[in-house]
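Record 1 of the preview.
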Amino acid sequence: MGQSRRRLALAVLSGVLFLTFLDTTIVAVALAPIQSHLHAGVDELQWVIGGYAVAFAALILVFGAIGDRYGRRRMMVAGLGLFVIGSVVAALAPSAILLIVARVVMGIGAAASEPGTLSLIRHLYPEESDRTKALGTWAAVAGFALAIGPVLGGILVGLDGWPTIFWFNCVAGMVIIVMAIRVLPESADRSIGSVDVLGSLTGPFALGVLVVGIVEGEVRGYASPIIVICFALALLGAVGFIFAEHRASNPLLRLRFLRNARFSGALMLAFSIYFSIFAIFFFVALYLEVVEGDSSYQVAGVFAAMMITMIVASIVAGRWTTQVGTRLATGFGALLAAAGIGLSDLALSGPTHPLLLAATLAIAGIGFGLVVVPVTSIALSTVPPEHSGMAAASTNTMRALGVTLSVAILGSFLNGELTGGLSSRLARLGVPPAFRQVVINAVETGGVAGHEGGAAKIYGPIVGKVIGAAYSSFHAGLSVSLIVAGSLIVLGGAVSLVTRAGHAR
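->
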């Protein structure tokens, strides 16, 4: 294949990667309109984000193995087709439940199409120097898609409502499918052996029931028999997955690599980065739209600063990392991201000033940008070249797992504050018990609007106080979420330093 043809193929692979990564963040700014239009509760909004992420995380290793065995381009095109079908259903969804189902279908499609991007890069660029540059492009595109998601989403929602996001996916997906069929070569390795069937069943099962238990536990109660059963099944599935990987001749995840401190440290860092990023994308965007009443354009404007600094930092990270080593770069980036998260929490503690919030998010963006690109390189550099596909897929699994558990766990914190915390505040205001649940339901489904002062003038002081209590509860849940996220990324940075993930100059 000629050089120009290879560049075109790399552009197509970058398009696949961009679209699948973009959809983990682009929906964040559409949550409030979805909540209002479909009367979705916070737990359902968790599934709008988490349904995509959990399907992606649970199945990416599985589809990567199937694609390696039976055809990487074939699997990629099939996955993109499923992604487009899910996007059409999402755009037309009349209810939150159908939207969640569509998002799960999209996640399955993304999991099927994304693993082949790295495998085909290895096939297209057999020379190590060229392959290294192509992998740098791959990592940069992933970071760019992550950063631009909320901004592009805000613009699309502002143009013609939240379904526009999914129509954009349809058009982009169909264009990429045509280009992939025309440009990409087929690639398969029949010699790698049979697919790890037991691992393919137990791994996704364990992750799925774990997330169901976390999200539904806040609604049903964590002592509920069905939730206890979910956690027990998750543990059983995890044990089964470990057993399967030890016994399989061609395992999805070679567990021996986890004993490598640099590799396991890189996975921990990937998890903590995306856990923390989604604490911002999910909760801050929802807070700005629901509590502050900002439009999608305004939210996009606030996140634009974070997008710009993430992109610039990602570009700088490649050169800076070669000078100081990945250990220092990732450790410093993690600490800077945590500082930005903490400052963002302070900026949201009183009347929100958009420029101040944008500045704090920009600091977090610099930190995230310094870490997002090197973390994949760390994982790839610690395993033999023939297992680089597994290493990249493992990193992407931890990224998606970070998104999934961030939305599930922190969303449960927020939901708990909106039920227990708000109920206590309403009781102190003298709101009768029969009306407390009405107010809680209205808050959870976007039925409360307006600020405390404005509502007091229009409806009377008690309504203004009720709305103020609702928003105080929302902010308390947001603050807890940001504190947890900041603490976790500090831990991830510490692990990166301790395991010496990289080389110092």
